[in-house]
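Lecture notes, structural biology module. Today: joint structure prediction for complexes of two components.
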Amino acid sequence: MQAQQKKNLITFVSDVIRWNLRGGFGFQLFRIVLFGIMGLGIYAYSFQARYGLSVTGMNDVVSWGFYISNFTFLVGVAAAAVMLILPAYIFHDPGFHRVVIIGEGVAVGAIIMCLSFILVDLGGPLQAWHLIPGIGLFNFPSSILAWDVLVLNGYLLLNALVPAYILYSHYMGRKADERKYRPFVFLSIFWAFSIHMVTAFLYQGLPARPFWNNPLMGPRFLASAFAAGPALITLILAVIHSSTTYKIERNVFNKLRLIIVISAIINLLMLFSEIFKEFYFPTHHSSSAIYLFFGMDGHNSLVPWIWTSVCVNLMATLVLAFNPGKNNPKVLLPACFFLFVAIWMEKGIGLIVPGLIPSPLGEVVDYLPTWVELCVTLGIFALGVTVVTWLVRAALIIEQDYGDIPDAK
Amino acid sequence: MSSDKKDQNEKICSQLLASKSNRRDFIKTMSIAAAAGSAALTAGCIPSANAASSEEMKLRWQEFFKENYRMMTQEEKDETVARLERLAKLRNNLDLQMSSLPPIEGVLYGYAFNITRCEGFMECVSACVKENNLDRKTDTQYIRIFEMEPGKLDPSTGDGQYYHEVPVENKFYMGTQCFHCENAPCTKACPTKATWMEPDGIVVVDYDWCIGCRYCQAACPYYGRRFNWGQAEIPKEEITLKQHYLGNRLRPKGKMEKCTFCIQRTRKGRLPACVEACPTGARVFGNLLDPDSEIRFVLKNKKVFRMKEEIGTDPKFWYFID
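The predicted structure, tokenised, for the full assembly:
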């Protein structure tokens, strides 16, 4: 690679593609499986394109389902990259500086999944151009959804361009000029909070839905995101550490554990506060919570779901907090995994679906996603994993082989 | 492809490019290539060779790239209405009369519902389904009638699924539909301004501008909106042919729809279908700005109330008791 003399943007892109096409048998198999799942997703979506959203489990009462649930959760994962960016760029933590690029890769993958979930949820995806300011008609600033379109795309740009600039500089054998990218790093920190608050406001701003119309929504979104996101990043770092030559310092894992524990405890505290409010003196505004935790009129499909989530969440948080294995990864990594899954269950389906049940006129129905929704969702997850692996692989090769120049320090 | 068909296509392309220029044409030229690929999806499925007749294709393209109804001049409104009429003729051999009639000056529509009189016959529901070309397959209904226990005034405590002989002793009936709120949460939520309140107070949807995100449905506190989850199915002989662009025209799949106070009737000075169908006279509709109207009489002389007043949506739909 070093032998290559002429380097420019074109060789940068072609090298990135070349590196990603290389790899051992296991890696290639992994790639092919991901492509297969994406193909399955496209196949499932073709039914939706032909017959409309009637092939999903949604209806006029539960008008948002699995897609929007996953979208909501993944916004949190994307925002959580800020938990690496903040120590790396602001506090110049050397350990985090080495892994921040991975966090940014995860954020890009998560945002791409978010946008895909929105797109597949649209009844008229071909009319999506009506959202483009200038050509379409954008209901800004009145519609929070319009805000969300802006902040999500802005965050995608910020998190793609800053690392791209740094990596490209390293690839070219230069030092990345901190004066050039530092303002954008600051911006992206505020932006990470904003994508999450705006997404929370999407629900929080609806007086029609008392379950969502709750001022704790935004802060609780942040707390759960800063637990689930770093948990996922920990898992990804562990995979990178064990399967590549890119080694990650021990203390990065320790610090991440601290971030996760604090966020998870704040999240549980807020959950407790919400539960207290709904059940100490239940009003007719508590009916969604009653449906969620105890079922209503014989409909109780979410009851086992939410209790599983709460119990797993509690257990994982306790394990991470008390660290019974004395930093043994065989204890902490499963705990991170279970915490991630528990928050996905609670902040996805457990938040979106009960907000819509019972309907404003009191109807209670159950919602179950159909095979089309499940396969499309799997396809989008595969797309996200593919994006993350492509980005991270390229980033790690550049950082290892080209990035000997210490960055800006 | 035969050569004369190719010629025809080229002619259409040049027609498209040469037609009077405005913002829309810019989009048109930009996206002709994209449209060619996606035209199949616009139709909802891969069109048969027959359906892809060049005239139909041309009309569909023009429809695809048209603007939001509110941004159109009256001339453009007439054009799109003519296109939609022609498309209905080409595709389903329907002779529609579609209108884009603007609101009448000095009119603000309001509605009142007499809960003493209503006996739950649901004539209003069937009249609405028929008039507004609602989907028969999923049994879509804009109007819901709830059978209520005495002592309750909140429809969520009532039975909206009753199926027995009415009226039942010691029960009363309450109807709901879109309340055409003055301070409507749904129009505020829409990211593309595809739903709005017309100057005569009717909250409408531009079905062709809606992207189907369903945020308005989540925002509505009255369950007033319905979504076209699939393609609506209506027996051809039952289709109401007198239509309005913002009213009862046939909706594509993936779009939001709702009660429009029968805009196709009321803008011509007629009553909504539900009011006309009601056998007990429980439904009152009229111009709130006309001091001599029946609705003003009700508001002045009866004890009226509105649903979920505390949210501040200011509905133009009142309940009253004789």
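Point to remember: Residues 309 and 346 of chain A are 6 Å apart (CA to CA).
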